[in-house]
## 1
Amino acid sequence: MAVLASSIATDTLQDYLAEQEEKPLLRFITCGSVDDGKSTLIGRLLYDTKLIFDDQLATLERDSARHGTAGEAIDFALLLDGLEAEREQGITIDVAYRYFATAERRFIVADSPGHEEYTRNMATGASTADLAVVLVDARQGILRQTRRHAFIASLLGIRHIVLAVNKIDLVGYDEAVFAEIAKEFRAFAGGLGFATIAPIPMSARHGDNVTANSAHMPWYTGETLLGHLETVPLAGQDLGRPFRLPVQLVTRPDQDFRGFAGQVASGRIAVGDDIIVAKSGRTSRVKAIVTADGDLPAASEGHAVTIVLEDEIDISRGDVLATPRDRPQLADQFMAHLVWFSAEPMMPGRSYILRTETDSMSATVTALKYQIDINSFSHEAAKSLHMNEIGVCNIATQSPVAFDSYKANRTTGNFVLIDRLTNATVGAGMIDHPLRRATNVQWQALDIDRNARAAMKHQKPAVLWLTGYSGAGKSTIANMLEKLLHASGRHTYMLDGDNVRHGLNRDLGFTPEDRVENIRRIAEVARLMTQAGLIVIVSAISPFRSERRMARDLFLDGEFIEVFVDTSLEECARRDPKGLYKKALAGDLENFTGISSPYEQPEAPEIHLKTAGREPGELATQIAEYLGKH
Amino acid sequence: MSLTHLQRLEAEAIHIFREVAATSSRPVMLYSIGKDSSVMLHLARKAFYPAKPPFPLLHVDTTWKFREMIAFRDQTVSDLGLELIVHVNLDGLEQNIGPFTHGSSIHTHVMKTLGLRQALDKYGFDAAFGGARRDEEKSRAKERIFSFRNAQHAWDPKNQRPEMWKTYNTRVAPGESIRIFPLSNWTELDIWQYILKEDIPIVPLYFADKRPIVERDGMMIMVDDERMQIAEGEKVEDRLVRFRTLGCYPLTAAIESSAATVPDIVREMLTARTSERQGRLIDKDEAGSMEKKKREGYF
């Protein structure tokens, strides 16, 4: 900022500030493989544009002597690598954001990590960027991470890419090396849909072609990096796009005011315009556009406003106000590109929380269509997505979502997936299109409901979900329990994990993916049965917390009773009623719970049955008594 | 109709405020009385207009703030009709913890970090707004806008949640919380330009005036009350100074300046050659000290 100051006369401060206000903003990231010099490049950029304060420079010089990897010289990477672990290891772990401006533009730059392990952090930086500077070490050429980052950049909708062929000094400023790398890059990135691809040879450490043209490379007559960043055409706002406003909250300070607060995601809206509510299809007209600075006649992309409508219609958070002439999609099934972040793989059938900008609901990946190989960009069959993998999948949500395709709208076309137990953000998605079957299959309302059916049986429906190791005694207890309930006139049905595998789940094996699907089907069948008014007893190992939670969420509060049949693994293995432990311990049986596949104990089951020293009949009675009381 | 730079920052902050209010069960705003808090409060009022912000303000009082700060705080809260919770770490007070007797590091840890943790636990807040900016310090530059804290209030910088687009993951388990920084993308200059544009009231200590100053270790410390011991050889002089950043008075150094209005300050900012945290003694203890404090639960 200091660089601009000398030219300011006192009386023109306001004019000067007003002019600064109008400068366009470019958000960009630096990415590429480890040690390609990303942090060094940004440090150099800030240093050469005199945007480093004196005390920061003093700290940098001190730190360079202690941690630096540049010998006697200043190690610019230390300006960015702000975490202790980063400085100790000399790597970048997470994104650092820096802010600077030149006479032409304002910039927000995200310095992103190169390690594959930290792809999620690179994606974080890329999700809000307009341009990516992909660095390549001139000695190494295009690497796996170069391809991965270029691909993720295109997937996330970044329009412009700079190929920074760095450390060119270490190959003797050789034009042929640069030309070869640029050619190879264009060969694969040309098909990724970027608006511009600009290769620039440079040395971040010595400053060649960063802010000033290099004296060492007379053969290069193109722009410097900074020159390019200042002039690359920005796709200004297209206010012709259809109006979208995802509703964040309903503002109701008193009886007379009801407004819908949100930030305009695209297009423009004016007082008197017709709008449609994406989920209900109800229409109304804009009565006022309210802000703390007074009502506005109109608002456009980026404005945070509160909209008041002519009519009293039901709208809540998660809905989208839109132009009736071009409505968003509304569907509970769609196809999307998915980037996976979690060490725990994505499994089709498992239930996650899906979060769009303002909406949130349960969702499952119903099919993983294919995984994308980041080296060849080819499509490959896969059963699950592991950390840092990218795939295309079908997703089903518990209730309909209003959205656009990500290509049409980065704001209303994105979502993240959240783990139900840890609340970690495990994946990020870009919606491609709704699935046909979703728009055609409608929910049929039935006149006789669950309450009517249950009342005829004089009972409250429930599901008793028995979980535990194989051989814990689940089936024996369940069998006795059903006899007890039957004797007292209750209408019951028992779903036994083994029996279900002979029919409904005959196509499933014991891999983690299949176990998830197995439980999903049992839970759905149990739900249908409770709707028929029955008391359902489920006996299934159901080893994963996440699926038991998914099952629980299908039922009303208090209807799902988790029963942990707690028999130690040693005792189960000693009993071994089916001879399975013997086989598993001998290595003849893969994916056997407790031996070669995990069992996650329930944390807060409604009933915790410690079986040691107790008879099955006694344990069954304990469950029946619980049911009687609740 | 494209948004200007400050409009863009304002809209981003408003969006963040609304997301938190809509999704967390017990939000609070950390109010430290400084210029960033003033801007944050102004934005919060805009975000919910015509309603009031649906959360209280929390001031963790170390009992060593400038007297003018406390007066400004009380005036602001009464003018705006807001709910203010003031929390003091009584254990620390009982042990007479203070910056002169125990040094900046222990004082800050006990009265600020532990005090904050106590207050958050006591009221069960699951979301707390803070006025920190990424341009302030290197470890802050790495922090998410929605920054997750475990049940011990600790930040795990090596394992932050991905933060994609403006699609924030606001979910926490009981006991865990999120710190939210609506000013993440603002620079110090942006803050001043916004104060100028919106005419936001700030503590008068930011403006140059003659104030009683003692020079200590190259820093200009203001004598704000009788608890400050004047050592032999030190002398109190009236000097024309102002503060670029405000905290506990013995730990916040003044700068020589004649900037007596907001436009003066903006002009001074445009030619500044040092960063604002220069005047913060607590940052100097060791490199990486901010990150260490944050891992312990500091804002």
## 2
Amino acid sequence: MSFDISLWLLQDGVTNGSIYALLALALLLVFAVTRTIFVPQGEFISYAALSLALLQAGRLPGVVYVLLGGGLAAAALELAQALRARRWRHLPRRLALYLLLPGAIAALAWWAAPRKPDLAEQVLLVLALVTPLGPILYRIAYQPLAGASILVLFIVSMAAHYVLSGLGLVFFGGEGLRSRPFADAHFRLGVLDVSAQSLWVVAASLAIMLVLWLFFSRSLYGKALRATAVNRIGARLVGVRPELAGSLSFAIAAFIGALSGVLISPVTTIYYDTGFLIALKGFVGAILGGMGSYPLAVLGSLGVGMLESFSSFWSSAFKETIVFTAIIPVLLWRSLTTRQVEDEEE
Amino acid sequence: MSALLEADALRVFYRRVEGLHRASLRVAEGAIVTVIGPNGAGKTTLLAALMGLLPCGGRARYAGIDLAGESVEARVARGLCLVPERRELFGDLAVEDNLRLGAFTRTRRVDRQMARDLESVYARFPRLAERRSQAAGTLSGGERQMLALGRALMARPRLLMLDEPSLGLAPRLVRDVFRAIAALRAAGVSILLVEQNARAALQVADYGYVLETGETVLEGAAAELAAHPRVVATYLGLSGQTARA
């Protein structure tokens, strides 16, 4: 293997790795706040990537029906809950959130799709279409079971994954789509030929990480999410509703999923079920980082990206096998070194 | 006098032993009311039920509204706050962030108020000001108790429920905590105090209840309760007296 090739593989690894890093951060966030292993993250990637490609073709992406249907179901749940408890105070705001907002976004998409908006507008529209799916999914599938064990929540996640991926097949069809690159330019950096698209990916990932860092270290809502992750009862005692924290973390995760889909859609052809494998690699990155530390998860994900690009060079048939096998030694090492003692507060 | 909090025959069915059968109590506006009782009598359960952390039967009214169906967060927003026995601080977050989150239910109001409340908590507990940027998990037991109190104060409580505030503290710190409780009442906060340290609790309180095996068995003005033979024998354990009379 020549120096040029390894540089090229390195670039590929960093590009993919930074997308995995974003996904790993979202998974960690959702797990810390709601104890949910967020399997359906992958569907948001597929939805966003396919929606972007369809918008570029001037067609209305089918995700609007998922959005409207999901919003309707969530609103029905809110209505049933309000009826049962005979409490109407919060109902108008929640109905607006689950009916009016998705309706407005869907109407915007319906109006804009045939007019072929420019790239920035397409990307914003895709983010607006996919991000509300996070809180809607949380409301329908997870909030009623918020007190359940991690295993039950995981099973819910698997179910949600299959349902969303099935809906993806219904509304997007089975053929793969690829969107146009954000920019066609290439830069020569020594021997390396850097595509503008991979610069976009890396820059956007860094920007999102910075925004996340600012959100969690500066804003009160970010701190409220951290507080819920650290101490659920304490968070309730200061008035942070677990539903608010769950909904917010799912919104962030869905936004990150959608953004990852947008970033990756010009790089590879995306099918309705491709996102699952991509999100799974983010999950591997989070595990390599110990499933608890955000910076380590980023490093782990970059590692996954490298491992993937180098193993696809040496033995591309075993690419996925090598990546997913990498977690075994890490898990072994962690189960041998971590003591199973819960840290008590006192 | 109208009662700020009124609980009538509260029952809690609990998976584990410590349950509540028939606990009734009243807290008058501006009063310090204490609940004393042995370990496992259901004192912590009583507070958790009043806070909405545990589902309970019976009736509880606070500030004129029925508490049934009110969520924990809604109760906090109405000024009913709990400083739990386990403190439940946010260990990874800085002391100041813990305090700011204490005011989470009133974040939509002006920020200037928040700064003023923060200063008043720091004035009350200067140690917290020294450690404002330190992670809460690194504090000592006494500092944790101060932080838990301060965090609850940031919510501007109308009725503050304190669960064993003196637990695990050195005697000098216990004195500080009880002094802080008396000062809070002077500032207009009503207090429901659960304590194993019955002597100190009855000294600071206006009115008291004795809770045994999940039932309120005795009540009275704090001074009378402190002189009641049963309380003296069981909870105050005066030396020179045969304990098991």
## 3
Amino acid sequence: MASEPPLVEIRGLRFEYSGRTIFDGIDIDIRRGGVTAIMGPSGTGKTTLLRLIGGQERPMSGCVRVDGMEVARLSRKRLYELRKRMGMLFQSGALLTDLSVFDNVAFPLREHTRLPEEMIRDLVLVKLQAVGLRGARDLMPAALSGGMARRVALARAIALDPMMIMYDEPFSGQDPISMGVLVKLIREINDALGMTTIIVSHDVHETAAIADYLYLLSEGRVVEHGTPARLQRSGSEWTRQFLNGLPDGPVPFHYPAPEFGVELLQP
Amino acid sequence: MNQRITTTVLQRLGHWALGRLQRLGRGNLFLLHVVPGLPGLLARPGLMVQQTFAIGVLSLPIVVVAGLFVGMVLALQLYNTMVDFGAEQSLGPVVALSLVRELGPVVTALLFAGRAGSALAAEIGLMKATEQLSSMEMMAVDPLRRVVAPRLAGGILSLPLLSAIFSAVGISGGFLVATGLLGVDSNAYWSQMRANVDLFDDVANGVIKSVVFGVVVTWIAVFEGYDAAPTSEGVARATTRTVVNSSLAVLGLDFILTALMFGDNT
């Protein structure tokens, strides 16, 4: 297991958006079969990282390799072939609003396979059963709660039994029960299907509870990485502030501004 | 001072013109990427039928009502002028020619831009804003083929049909007013029309116009939606730009097409 090359290798990745440096030479390895979390404050480009892995963005320099293939150099056809082996869960769920829950989960199967409709029905019901929403198959996305929509999107993401799945902020805006359900599902689905999971999140406790390995990103760089237990014992003040949610520390409470007293006395 | 103002004005003008040209280029590249997806629709006719229904069939009420009133008003207005020259028996062909050559394609295209074009832009723009297009890409499904191509085909197919219905209803509306209200002989209305309206010179040219308008209006609508900023403001702008740009394009193209088709008949 240890000798196996990582499923995703990111080396010297640089990326800019609208003149702002998002990543300034980062290296990340995503190990096969595990749950790797990429964490950091809002606006550190975590979602952009998933888009780079999925080939929706191209790096300025450096490379992103998935299963040995450099994503930015793949032809459109080969990129689409690779994407069939990747699942992605968007923050909003991104369900197709004109299709029912059943048809949303059946969508990738109908687009990419020539399976008979009876078999598609069975496969969709299996996936929906896995996320506990078999009974909701006839509902339209507008009738679902946020947590249910993400579970349907999860069922859709695993419809083609991908080798890896990427979650973009899966816990944000969830009530405690939905959060608990999602935490359990992510780990169980990873282990049951033998997949590789990448979670991008800033929900520290939930993510640390299920992740095998954590990367902490800030200001375009990897600040620290390691197992959750190791990072909890980290000597870095930034890591401690982030993991414990402290309001002040290396990341100051105040946005940079002139001296308060001076500004008040100004006419 | 004056030189600085002139430079600023020129810079802004240049910036504006470059922006427009870039947009035009993007629009053309977009169309180049969508067109190869059109033949694939033959294998999945359901997608096109669904879009033709949403774009064409649901636009029928406004087209039929507008066609009826335009035809009735046209008969009233033309009769008042023609009766002075004793030419009221030619009301049928004049109404028909006005509708088939000009008003049918143009007014239908303008209504189509407002009814279906804006809906297309808003739908695609919202799909982008809610990450539905991104999620399709990540499922290895090309949104240009799955979402845009069927809508483009549906629009191109719908507009000529709607134009034909508009003209037919308009001619019938003109007939109702001419015979019921103005006392024109019904046989004269139809027989003069049959004698003076040519299938190729008039009807076919009208159909060509509506096909061109169908391509342009639907292209602008799907491009604006796809190119929209993924925010509510971006979708609102895309919708407005669709209606404004496609209406202007229809009017401008109508002049060019009319000049090409009928300009040498003098």
